[in-house]
Write a structure and sequence with these properties.
By secondary structure, the protein is of the alpha/beta class. About 35% of the residues lie in helices and about 25% in strands. The radius of gyration is 20 Å and the shape is globular. Bound molecules: ligand 48F.
Length: about 270
């Protein structure tokens, strides 16, 4: 198999490559500057939430400050790859099609890179859009309701002060999800204004933490749903330790809550609004 010029690859000019990249970015930004749901954070809870929402035809974009998605889901704990989940969350592993083994009754082990990459791929397949290298810097707040996120290029935070006069831009959504993990970044912006309390998570207690997180997953302020470890921080719940089923089921529950909120919105889901 060869190209018309006799070499392996088809000929291309540099500007064509550059334009292709710019177009892809610009088209997505234009489409998602106003969307159904913005998820802050692309860890296990945010990805799971996005997967379920996009599966229902909801226009969803994950905003992730890192270059990579997955948050803490790549590594099981410490410096070891094996990720654990407890029953009944192994049903998500079945759904993702990732092999796992039972280590004791109700406790399952799975490869971190394998399960994390499958979750990311499933979210992509479902149609979730991703904005990487972008930090959530604030919220759009109108009449006591969260209506979007203020975002900036992540690198701006690492530049010297004298060259960081870079204003952020804002994205609007019908619902925002805080999936930023322990820092509960979006909720913290409301806390700073005295609108919410974010006490931070309690000490580790694996047996209690996962039930508690899933149970408390929901709307924490008008237009803002919290999922994953952000829920722990918001309610002072015990931290989970290195087990991830609670993150997956919390993401699922957050998506169900978002769908409920969207039902009451005047503009139909998927319409540009
Ligand atoms: O930390 P993270 O994996 O949160 P999670 O989904 O899952 C927690 C577990 O990984 C683990 C645990 C339970 O098993 O204790 O820690 O609750 O993913 C959070 C994502 O949010 C991104 C961050 O880079 C990570 O990918 N994030 C954090 N702050 C911002 C952000 C921000 N300001 N803007 C954009 N993304």
């Amino acid at each position: 198999m060869g190209s018309s010029n006799g070499r392996l690859f088809h000929e291309v000019r540099e500007h064509e490559v550059t334009r292709a990249i710019i177009r892809g970015f610009a088209e997505q930004m234009e489409q998602y500057a106003q969307c159904d749901v913005l998820i802050a954070g692309g860890g296990p809870s945010g990805l799971m939430c996005g997967l379920r929402l996009a599966g229902e035809g909801v226009r969803t974009m994950v905003v992730e400050r890192n270059n990579y998605l997955g948050g803490g889901f790549w590594v099981g704990g410490y410096l070891m790859n094996t990720v654990t989940v407890r029953a009944p969350s192994q049903r998500i592993l079945d759904e993702l099609g990732v092999p796992y083994r039972q280590v004791s009754e109700g406790l399952f082990a799975v490869g971190g890179p394998h399960v994390c990459s499958k979750l990311i791929a499933s979210a992509c397949d479902a149609g979730v859009a991703f904005l990487n290298l972008t930090s959530v810097d604030d919220v759009v707040l109108r009449d006591g309701r969260v209506e979007g996120l203020v975002v900036n290029w992540s690198a701006v935070h690492s530049l010297p002060r004298q060259i960081t006069c870079v204003d952020p831009v804002a994205l609007e959504a019908k619902v925002v999800v805080d999936a930023t993990g322990h820092d509960a970044v979006v909720a913290a912006f409301l806390a700073r204004r005295g609108l919410l309390d974010v006490p931070g998570c309690g000490a580790m207690w694996v047996d209690q933490s996962e039930d508690a997180v899933v149970e408390r997953t929901g709307e924490v302020y008008a237009g803002l749903v919290a999922t994953g470890m952000a829920v722990s921080s918001l309610y002072g719940l015990p931290r989970m330790g290195p087990t991830f089923g609670g993150m997956l089921l919390s993401g699922e529950k957050a998506a169900a809550k978002v769908l409920e909120i969207l039902k009451d919105q005047p503009i139909p889901v998927g319409a540009s609004g």
